[in-house]
Amino acid sequence: MVKTAIADESYLTYLKSLCKPDTCTVGLILGQPSTGKDFIIHLARTPLGQCDTAAKKSITPVKPVKHINEVSESVVADHAKHATRMLPGGMFVLGIFVVSEEDIFSPVDSKLVAILNQISKQLSMNSFVYGNPSNCEKLVLNLCTTTQTYTCKSYESSTFKPAEIKFQPKIATKWLQLECKYELDQVFTILEKDIGWPLRRYMTNILESINKNLHNAVFIIDGEIKDNDEYLESVGKKRKLARSKTGYHENTDSKALSVTILSPCKAPDSNTDPEITDCGSKIRLTGHVASKVWLHPKATIGTASEAIVQDIVRSLAARLEMHWDSLIEEEHGSPEDTNSIHEPPRRVLVTLPSSKITLSDYLFPGEGPQESQISLQELLDITLTADSEIKDIEGQADLNEMYMEEVESADDVLPKLPTDTNKFMYIVGLGVAFLVLIISLMVHYFRSNS
Amino acid sequence: MANTLKISEAVINKLSTINFTYSGCLHGIFYKNSLLVLGLHVETDEKDEIINSLPTEVDICGVIDINSEENNVKVDDILRKVDITDNPIYISFNSSLENSISAYFIVNDQLKSANFEIVKQANIYSEFVHVRLRASLPIYTELNIDAIKEAFLTLRKQFTSGQVAFNFQKSKVYLVGHDLENRLIGLSGDPTVGELCDESYVTNEGQINQRKRKSGQNIQQQVIEVYMFKKSTRDFPVEGTTLHAPVVHVDKKTFQSLQLWVEVDALSMVHVDSKVVNLYDIIVESSCRNLRLQQNAFFKFFTDCIEEQGKISNLKIYHFYPESCGHFVTKAYPKNFADIDLEEERSLLHKQLLLPVNRPIFRKSNVFLFRSDIQIGGPLINPHEGLIHTGNENEVVIVRGKYLYYHYCQNKMDDNGWGCAYRSLQTLASWFLLQGYTCRPVPTFDEIQKCLVDIGDKSNSFIGSKQWIGSTEVTFVLNSLLGITSKIIYVSSGEELATKGPDLINHFKTQGTPIMIGGGVLAHTILGVDYNRKTGDIQFLVLDPHYTGPEDVEIIQKKGWCGWKGMNFWDKGSYYNMCLPQAPTCI
């Protein structure tokens, strides 16, 4: 069977707009794989030059690439990594497109193979990002500017097979939306012997446990629990039927199905005897991950649940990666004995112009929609018109409040040990009191003078 | 408010045996405008919260004075002791006045005389089912008393926060909340608890056969197994908090941490007509009771260990169903404590619940066997239950409590032709295990043979052989492995057994243990006797270890492998030895 994918016609127009003489453009194909056909949701050309979203540097213009040979595979792979972070669970980098003067398939350009392999390698680096879908096939779309025709192949284990991409006007894919708010409120203890590890290593273990828990979970979708091989479409059928009988019509396809995740309360099979250990520190996770995934109508309950898991874990892994990337060297280990609060960037949602599907972006504390506009432009080649298209769905934590709480809770547990923070608060408190005193004296002085 | 008062037969029976003066509290359950008194406890000098040991929905519903001479009842005192606010009851009982029971509802601080109806145990358990919640919850905390208390409190909060869901019988039925629109998933309509127990509602492969099988309990306890799930997603924001994106708090300090798995195993008692959706709050309450029970036990047993770095062990929940108590009693015992370490604990319970002090009731091996605890394919429990006996107006006494049916060819071992006395011995040993006299597992053939060699009764070559043993060897093994002494009764012929009626009646009345009988080449187990003192007619309830078939109680009863036998069952030509194990007096 020939691998097929469908895409909106507007993306063919997009590809054609990239046809320029003496230029070769490479980009990513983003979408959702399925057993029948793949659903392409977006095409985004790879920015020339170094893309560094974490630091949000503007791109220095580089002279255009003339031939695929000049394309750096690591740049494309890096682009794939950054783009994957922005995709909801169940969506992947499906492959690449190449707009070039020559036909890259006859003969197959060795650079093309190098790029594809580098992408797969890069995406498998952090398994929690869920970069590669379960089948490793990658699509390659070549638009030859000289003949103005496009060819498509699928690449798997060093061989190219024929494939087909259909550009359709106004594809009526009825995407089903699922959403939930995944709560994090867990404490992890760090053994005294592991105290020297960088924070990143602890967090990898924590992600591992979250990932494992999610894989054992039971998913309630819109109030129903169904078998994994049933179709997602079947959720709510009965109720919809009942509604239509009573003459009540609702535009159901625009409404997201809410997901409740239930984790079993089971002890591990291994030894569950009480353990007393010497611990070096505690890591506490708070807050929530807002998750929203989109699935094609023939997706099964199993696929949908998997997409939710991927979305939550990918989103956490992505923001942590971005957080580590933004830290300076010393902050990684933080060997000194101070408590700290790490605030990774938060998730915002951006609606794709061609469909209702939302992609994610991550904003660091203090960043606003402008920053998001830049990264969207850069990574996904999307130009947003207004700030309102970016939805802040998670909310920024109030760190000041948290520091205060931390101090209070420290007080509860260790009433006799004043911490540095405590002293600090004390001094700040005294300072503020003193300031108030001076101001009131001045007010008093000026008033009595006047 | 309750309109009618019902009292369990168990309570009436218990009261009739009491000659001392006590004051105590009544355990009761409300349903359908009735208050049903299930049991009671009396006040002792040692204080122990008994409420956490009761199934949820069973509450302290009133006060009882037993053989009290005082006539002045203080309503305020009563109200202070009870948990319920709507019309608690007061019962006064006096054994000297022909066991008279006077019952009163307290209405507006006044005693108002109440009529009551006595209900049989069997009727209670056809109207009520038990819901058993299980969950394993981790505690990670600093190793100090305050932090551990806080951790237990956090666990309780987890239940009351609404962030939990319950799964019934490992089916696809989930109860996810008490105020949500779709709170019951997997069942349509608004079913009752009784309907949930019905096979057609919850289809669960493999459980159907099991249910038909007699589980061997005197009273068929219907139990709904519930497993807890934690909601990892939040449907509605918590009031007073603002949601925010994930934040990582790193708290640098060195401390000793305690990691503990708390195994919640909580019972609630509910009427079959209650709605399944109403179970949510009941199950939550049962888990809180269970956690309080465990917290109290934890600090009772391990406070010293926390301070002195001693060995902390897990707690395990034990549900007991003492027959004369009328309801379940739940205790949390440390896994590493032997029965001897817990004697004080048990002694208090015996006193509080006015239970006999001559036999174990709350030892670990007295634990109630729920259907899900019973090993499938293992030896049957009490296969004589359900036998129809047509002994006419004779005196019938049978074995007390539970035993396992051991017979030929079990555990893939072919002992056909030589192992019958070993099997009978195993049945005897299982009785002592299940009655809590010992925690020693039922001895294997190897252990039996080794024991006989060790005490010098047999030579080394006996181990691994297929040699028979007789009632003397059974006596030796019971004595050296379980510390049980036995009486031996000898008869020179099968016919002479007829004269032993009074002895056997007396044995089952006072000891209640199964008897091993050996004669000729055969060994059997006698489980009961039916004796007519006037005519001398006698029948024996015999358990035959020579059965080689599957563990199917229907075949066993139909083909007479367990059944009532007349005198003709015994061989007139051979002599018989009976080993009558004596139950020690202990708790």
UniProtKB/TrEMBL annotation, chain A:
InterPro entries: ODR-4-like (IPR029454). Keywords: Membrane, Transmembrane, Transmembrane helix. The keyword Transmembrane helix applies. The chain crosses the membrane at residues 424-446. It is found in: Membrane. GO terms for biological process: intracellular protein localization. It comes from the Eukaryota. The keyword Methyltransferase does not apply. GO terms for cellular component: endomembrane system; membrane. Pfam families: ODR4-like. Belongs to the ODR-4 family. This is Protein odr-4 homolog isoform X1.
TrEMBL record, chain B:
Keywords: Hydrolase, Protease, Thiol protease, Ubl conjugation pathway. This is Probable Ufm1-specific protease 2. Thiol protease which recognizes and hydrolyzes the peptide bond at the C-terminal Gly of UFM1, a ubiquitin-like modifier protein bound to a number of target proteins. Does not hydrolyze SUMO1 or ISG15 ubiquitin-like proteins. Residues 150-371 form the UFSP2 second domain. The keyword Hydrolase applies. One of its GO terms (biological process) is proteolysis. SUPFAM superfamilies: Cysteine proteinases (SSF54001). Residues 395-579 form the UFSP1/2/DUB catalytic domain. The keyword Protease applies. Residues 1-124 form the UFSP2 N-terminal MPN-like domain. One of its GO terms (molecular function) is deUFMylase activity. One of its GO terms (cellular component) is nucleus. Transmembrane segments: none annotated. It comes from Agrilus planipennis (Emerald ash borer). Belongs to the peptidase C78 family. It holds the Pfam family UfSP2_N.
